[in-house]
Amino acid sequence: MIRIRSKREGFRRCGITHTVVPVEYPDDRFSKKDLAALTADPMLKVEFLDDPEPDAGGEAAADEISAMTVKQIVEEIAKYQPVEPLKGVKKAELIGILKAHIAAAAGQKE
Question: Distance between CA atoms of 71 and 63, rounded to whole angstroms?
Answer without folding.
Answer: 16
